[in-house]
Write a structure and sequence with these properties.
Elements lengths: L3 E9 L5 E4 L7 E4 L2 H21 L20 E7 L1 H8 L12 H9 L4 H12 L4
Antiparallel strand pairs: 1-2, 1-4, 2-3
Length: 132
């Protein structure tokens, strides 16, 4: 999945914080006490919803063109950049066991060199899949 850019509407609150919602993703709402915190919370909320949708084979909503969204008076638009692969690398650290076979001579050489098989496989897969 490539990078996605979702417009988020930020609403300044009377207490100085911000509420945030995504017009393209119903129910994806959050808030923060500062602009920085509201942005981080918006990114996390977007990540949770989109990764849930992907994991459950739901269609990911297409992002609106930011020029097409007209916030109400006092509100403003912020575009949130989202990369599903980067988000999952950051948040999904569970290990998955894989069984594989390699030639005996290669196994022996790797063991002699104290090779970490899991690390080598991860690095090779990331290189093969062009995941930075």
């Amino acid at each position: 999945m490539k990078k996605l850019f979702y417009p988020a509407v930020f609403i300044p609150e009377e207490d100085g914080g911000f509420s945030v919602f995504f017009p393209d993703i119903p129910g994806c709402n959050t808030c923060g006490d500062t602009m920085d915190q509201a942005y981080e919370m918006a990114f996390d909320a977007l990540g949770l919803v989109l990764s849930y949708m992907e994991d459950n084979k739901e269609e990911i909503p297409k992002a609106s063109n930011p020029q097409d969204i007209k916030p109400e008076e006092g509100q403003f638009l912020v575009v949130i950049e989202f990369d599903m692969n980067a988000y999952k690398r950051k948040t999904d650290s569970r290990a998955v066991k894989k069984t594989l076979t390699i030639p005996s001579w290669l196994n022996d050489a790797a063991l002699e060199s104290n090779v970490n098989f899991s690390q080598v496989l991860q690095e090779a897969l990331m290189e093969k899949l062009h995941i930075a």
